[in-house]
Write a structure and sequence with these properties.
This protein has one domain. The protein is 77% helix and 0% strand. It is built from 7 helices and no strands.
């Protein structure tokens, strides 16, 4: 429930002010980290890895793109404590896909102009909520694709 409250505040402030408040993200990050040390279906290292990799992946995108804010980076790091690895990767992937399609639609319909900033926090919130419920399953499915199980010899012979 706390996660959804944090994401609601982040979505509203990012949409209206294009700013993700540290006064919300920092306490929530600490709280989720402390909770994950004692409570969680996975070992705490799964969530620590999620925090580091989620934050690092988005930090690299922020550094390369110069358009993603550091509040977004901190938000995904916080989400890593909730989702763990690899679900936080699913959250980022979904956020980029949904945000990209929405940005293209807004640009095509004239809602935003070329080069105009679009808040990424609401799309991160969408990806985080989706990954919260289905992230593990999506990561397992995608991992099976990468492992080649869909293209195994049995599958090829069936076709």
């Amino acid at each position: 429930m706390l996660l959804f409250a944090v994401l609601l505040v982040v979505t509203i402030t990012d949409l209206h002010l294009q700013w993700i408040p540290d006064m919300v993200i920092y306490p929530a990050t600490w709280l989720f980290a402390i909770l994950r040390l004692w409570v969680g279906p996975q070992p705490w290292t799964t969530y620590f890895t999620g925090c580091l990799t989620g934050g690092l992946m988005l930090a690299i995108l922020a550094w390369i793109s110069k358009g993603i804010g550091w509040g977004d980076v901190k938000l995904l790091g916080m989400a890593g404590w909730v989702l763990g690895w690899p679900a936080v990767g699913v959250a980022l992937w979904l956020s980029v896909c949904v945000g990209g399609v929405t940005a293209l639609w807004w640009w095509a319909t004239g809602r935003v102009g070329a080069g105009e900033a679009i808040p990424f926090g609401p799309f991160l919130a969408t990806g985080i909520v989706t990954a919260y419920f289905w992230g593990e399953a999506w990561a397992a499915w995608y991992g099976s694709l990468l492992a080649g199980s869909i293209f195994s010899s049995k599958t090829i012979y069936m076709w």
